[in-house]
Amino acid sequence: MYKKYLSYPHLMWMLIFVLVPIVIIFLYSINVLSTNGTTGFSFENYKNFFDITYMKIFGYSLWIAFLSTVFCLGFGYPVAYILAKRERERLAKGKKSSTMFMLFVMPMWMNMMLRTYSWLTILESNGLLNTLLGFFGLPQVNILYTTAAVVLGMVYDFIPFMILPVYSVLVKIDPSINEAAEDLGASPIKVFFKVTIPMSLPGVVSGITMVFLPSITTFYISNIFGGGQIMLVGNLIEQQFLVANNWNFGSAIAIVMMVLMFLSMKIMNLFNKGNKQMAMF
Questions:
Q1: For the whole model, what pTM was predicted?
Q2: Domains along the chain with CATH numbers
Q3: Tens of pLDDT, residues 95-109
């Protein structure tokens, strides 16, 4: 009888700290200052965002986010697979959980901004990377303040969000399923592509969502690794609020990105639901 009242504090929290700020941002986005000095409600700010200049920034942000997600998946999936395999082997022998997984979780406890700044000492002209290359007589590289550096920063910051969901799914796969496939004549490679990967798709989809969406709207990574020379949607929003003092246009961009993220999450959820049904079948 009283269980429904237990949800009221959560609902109040969501109302005050989620719904109300979104409503305020939306009201800012439709508030337009006319030429005669009066204000009114209009969707002019949304129309301005679809200008070719801002669309190029949006397209470039999608490209950077796509590259970051691909690299996170390419590097993160093998790591999650190895960790999950070792964990299953240890549990099968009655041993305790491995501490290796903690090595990938511990960096997430450190401030993300601090971890990002630490890469400057590695990538700068006289940094650790070029020092090592010079020691071995190899030509120095200068990738700082380039697109490659921004992608590297995103991969470094967001790859744990790819490893964790994939690992959580792989570690729960019953080893007897793989053994049954091998007993039926499937090679280890075929078992991996026909059994392991399809069963791990829910984790892959979750990882893609957790990496791709923040990669589109991040601004501090591109500020640090791009040196202010690379403009992403997150930088555009930051610029409108802190530099141009155009909160209305910045709010409109934020609302558009919020809607796009919501649609992306719904599509991912539908895809994830379809994968679960295929796995059950």
A1: 0.84
A2: 1-42 (no CATH), 52-280 (1.10.3720.10)
A3: 666 666 777 777 777
